[in-house]
Amino acid sequence: MILLGTSGWQYRDWRGRFYPAGLPQTRWLEHYAERFATVEVNNAFYRLPERDIFARWRGRTPDDFCVAVKMSRYLTHIKRLREPDEPVDRFLSRATALGDRLGPVLLQLPPNLPADVPALDRTLSRFPADVRVTVEPRHPSWWTDQTREVLERHRAALCWADRGGRPVTPLWRTADFGYLRLHEGRARPHPRYGRAALRSWLDRIGSTFTGDETTFVFFNNDPGGAAIADAAALAGTARRRNIPISRAPAPSTTG
After folding, report:
1. Biggest alpha carbon–alpha carbon distance for the chain
2. Would strands 215-219 and 2-6 be described as parallel, antiparallel, or unpaired?
3. Averaged over 199-206, what is the pLDDT?
4. Above 60 in pLDDT, residue 144?
5. Per-residue confidence at 251, pLDDT binned at 50, 70, 90?
6. Domain boundaries, the chain
């Protein structure tokens, strides 16, 4: 199963493309959740919401909705994975208000953070076993057997990432779920993804994960509604190939 969504839902230029012009922004999450089954919350990276905000998101979304949450930059970019206990505990004390809506926690590491496998090990150890974690390293020194072993031991997924229609990470399988972030395509209008790139990602997912395992796929190319249009295109291609995929808007509704 592919669980499909976008990285965030509150983009002003989606009004008129995805959100009806007259729909108040206070109802955008409900509109989004009727058309997608998951979202990745990016703004938690910049400012961690209070627990009651997470609880409200839970109350505003359907039972089958799943919220992936990006870890606060305080841990990843300021502390740089050092002394993880307090930042992880504070994050979980708030995000767990999502209850059964809580999906994977994304740790996106700074591009200038070289590999520190012991620090990553300590950080992952702080998460309880029932919380799924995915890690997006961005410095090439992380691509080692030691990194892979730590991810596998903690059952944390390596976050696959794409720029320009190509992988920028190894395609390791380190957990029983997958996680893919599509940052920027090469098609027009920029930053759209072309059909060949989308088909290639479906092939990679299908050759790595079994039919009863979930792969989260989030389009992060939000300008101009590209993420919405590309998600609709990916869903259409998956269905034509009989690949199980969660709900997505029809291409005609993406502007």
Report:
1. 53
2. parallel
3. 98
4. yes
5. confident
6. 2-253
For tokens 């395509």, what's the residue?
Answer: 185
Phi-psi region of 196 (alpha: psi -120 to 50; beta: other; left: phi over 0): alpha
172 pLDDT higher than 80: yes
Q: How far apart are CA 42 and CA 27, in angstroms?
A: 19
Strand partners, 15: 19
* Stretch 49-58: mean pLDDT: 98
Strands 38-41, 157-158: parallel, antiparallel or unpaired by DSSP? unpaired
Fold annotation for 2-253? TIM Barrel (3.20.20)
Q: What are phi and psi of 124, to 5 degrees?
A: -65, -30
**Preceding peptide of 128 cis, ω within 30°:** no
The full DSSP string for the chain is -EEEEEB-S--GGGBTTTB-TTS-GGGHHHHHHHH-SEEEE-TTTTSPPPHHHHHHHHHTS-TT-EEEEEPPHIIIIISTTSS-HHHHHHHHHHHGGGGGGEEEEEEEPPTT----HHHHHHHHHTS-TTS-EEEE--SGGG-SHHHHHHHHHTTPEE-EEEETTEESS-----SSSEEEEEEE-SSSSTTPPPHHHHHHHHHHHHHHS-TTS-EEEEE---GGGHHHHHHHHHHHHHHHTT--B-----GGG--
Whether the Cβ atoms of residue 237 and residue 23 lie closer than 8 Å to each other: no
The number of C-alpha atoms within 13 Å of 24 and in the hemisphere containing its C-beta is 2
pLDDT confidence of 37, banded at 50, 70, 90? very high
Give me the amino acid identity at 189: P
Closest alpha carbon to 35 in 253, 248, 252: 248
Q: How many CA atoms lie within 13 A of 58 on its CB side?
A: 15
